[in-house]
Amino acid sequence: MKTDKSHYLLTLGLLMVFVVFGILFINGCTPSKEVAAKTGVQLWGENCQRCHNTPSPSTYSPEQWETVGMHMQTRALITENEKNKIVDFLKTTH
Amino acid sequence: MRNIFFNKWVFPSILLVSSCTNLFAQNNTVVDSAILNRLTTLEQQVNYNKPGNDHIMVVGLTTIGFADIKTTNTLNGIATTAKTNSLGDADHYEFSPMFLWRHGNKFLMEFEPSFSNNGLGVNWADVSFFAAPNLIIRAGYFVLPFGAYSKRLAAGWIDKLATDPMGIAGMTPTDYGIEAEGGLSFGSMKMNYDVALSNGNQLLPDGTLTSGNISDNNNNKTITARVGLLPFSNSSLELGVSGMFGKVGDAGSKFENAKGNMYAFDLNYVKTFNPIFVNIKAQYNIVNISDVNYVNPLDATQTYTFNNHSTAGFAQCAVRPGGVKNFLKDFEVAGRYTSYNTPSNSTWGSDQHSVSIGLDYWLSWRSVIKFTYETFTGNSTASKLLNAYTGKTETNTLYLQFSIQL
Q1: What is the pLDDT of residues B142-173, one digit of tens each?
Q2: Which of residues 3-62 of A touch B (CB under 8 A)?
Q3: Which of the listed residues A56, B313, B317, B325 has the most CB atoms within 10 Å of its CB?
Q4: Which fold has domain B58-405?
Q5: DSSP secondary structure string, B174-233?
């Protein structure tokens, strides 16, 4: 019985989280000026290290970085804008 | 006087300028021709190397190591000790090339076969459609979005310690289904979402779960979802919450109405306090399965039941002096506490804890040598009536492991 109650509470909690995020999503997703102004090198430094060491731009060719960038977008769930800036930085620094 | 001036200065000057002009003109003709030839060659080279719409590349990883293990089991007051060591570190050896096939900028296929101690398997095989700037739709065989560890942190060259935290990966199925995911910005914060519909887990006769069946065992699909919030503009902190809900029993069986309700909470914090880089990860999983009657393994005419509730959690901290200018910048120290509890009075109940400490040496950003020392304590909570009780197990293991991403 106690377990059932905790199930309902957890499910309700999760539902609320989804609702909150849903409202935020519907209200539009506009980054602040500070975030929008971030460069590729900044985003590369901030986001890659969330999971692993920051990769050297010389690791892959520009064309390979395009492919790796798409793969990483599916894993880290960075935004499209972040992915484009990071990949552009890695390609131009290559 | 005027003619003398003209003959002496102006006329020779005109001749000189005229000669020089012709000379330069001739030289320019020669230079232009060489440049044009060179440009033509470069254009040919550029065109030759221009990317097409499709691009295939192979990346992947391998992990290999050595484990020295001392195990002590105490049952009914009698302790037995065994010492083993093995090259290849059977539980953690892996060779997994990953094929990435990009079709334009809208489609990406990912296929990762893997050879390990369990033989040849597939980690994932899926196709992603980048439908909109912040919407990716995936279909195929993929890791479900339950927690963050299995999808992002489990690779040997990413994990700071030689072992996976107990129970975490096992509770995160890889399954056939469809998925929608993406990342979004709002203000100084970011969020990401990941929702999947898949065949789901299957409840086995002993109460454990299995997954990854291409044919569903019932007509109910499992929904798995995770949302992550990054509250700071520098993306240093991510908090995630996940849920997985669906029927787990076989259609037409006495387990038919059994449901699985699962929850996961994860935390990821990375920050440089110059010159030290701090990396904190944590996750807590909860698995609840409906109460059902299981067939007694000792007497098939009898049944038994138990509260099918499992939890697994870990907290890990790693520090690396990445900002120093000497050899120390390539070293990293990590520690982790893991707890894993499976249902008491089942045939597989246990209360397990482990502490892992490690020293890593980074050869490059994606290759690492890891020394990990791990102590494990497992107290069996399995049913004595079913002769499943195994006593207390203590293990001390030293791992030496090399892992590289290719």
Answers
A1: 999 999 999 999 999 999 999 999 999 889 98
A2: 3, 7, 10-11, 13-14, 17-18, 21, 24-25, 27-32, 34-35, 46-47, 49-56, 59-60
A3: B313
A4: Porin (2.40.160)
A5: EEEEEEEEEEEEEBTEEEEEEEEEE---EE-TTS-EE---SS-SSS--EEEEEEEEE-ST
